[in-house]
Structure formats: structure tokens, C-alpha cells
Amino acid sequence: IHDGEGHPSSSHQPLKGTSKWATSLENLLEDPEGVKRFREFLKKEFSEENVLFWLACEEFKKTQGKKQMQEKAKEIYMTFLSSKASSQVNVEGQSRLSETILETPHPLMFQKLQDQIFNLMKYDSYSRFLKSDIFLNHKKSEEQEENSPEAQTAAKRASRIYNT
């Protein structure tokens, strides 16, 4: 189905914003605005370190060069995993992680821990986020923008004119 200008009708438009965030945590984490809102929510829940750790691991996987990997691995360890970490995440097997693994880093060295944190967010914080004021207010303002006269296309305006 196409509108008068040959574009697919709105029912086939790709999801964006809060609609996309609500479909999966993966979609939320792919959107910088979604990450920002989710961080805002987690900060209120005192668990922002979870998403920060997850993001740091994603960034770490893209790191090139042994020296840079060692530096980033140490930074992740000291920030999130060490017993003295400033933003410690709560993961199983953490006590067995020692600084010796930082000598020979590899892109997926934090994968198991990252997966634990992802699942913790997915089955815990994410569902609460979707019910939170932060999410609902953002969704509401998105809907108001979409329904504003400026957001309506010429085709929609034209069809309204001719169908009255």
C-alpha cells in the first residue's frame, strides 16, 4: 500500500524512538537517545553502572592493538570489576577474575560478564524502564511532535483537504 506520492503507507514505516525501544533492549541500546534515557532511569535506581559496563564492553570489542586493549581492559577492570571499583557491577565469577588476565587481553574477554549484565538489565531494569515516567513522558512528547501540524506531510494535508 502506498500513499499518493508512491511512498509506503505509515503501517510499513520502520519503527523509531520509543516504539523501537519498546520492542527490545537491543533496539534501545542501539539508539543513543534510548541509551541516554535508560541511563537516566538506571541512575535513579542506583544501577547505572550496569549499562555503563555493557557500553564499555561494546567499545572494548572494537579496540585495535594490544597496548590499547591492555589499557582499556585495565580501565574496565578497575572501574567495574575490581573489589575497589568505583562503579562495581555485580556478576558471578567476578572473584575469580584477577588482574593477570589483563596481560593478554582479547576482544571477547568480558563477554560472559557482559552477557550476565545484559540479562540482568533485560529481565529486571528494562521492564521497569518501559513503565517509568522517563519512558512514558518521552513517548508522550514524541507522539505530540508526530501529531503536530508541522510534522504532517503535504500529502496528508492534501488528502485531508480533498476528503472533506
UniProtKB/TrEMBL annotation:
Domain RGS residues, every copy: 24-135
Molecular function terms from GO: G-protein alpha-subunit binding; GTPase activator activity
Keyword Repeat on entry: no
Pfam family, one: RGS
Keyword Membrane: no
Keyword annotations: GTPase activation
CDD domains tied to this protein: RGS_RGS10
GO biological process: regulation of G protein-coupled receptor signaling pathway
Disordered: region residues: 140-164
GO cellular component, one term: nucleus
Protein name per UniProt: RGS10 protein
Protein's organism: Sylvia borin
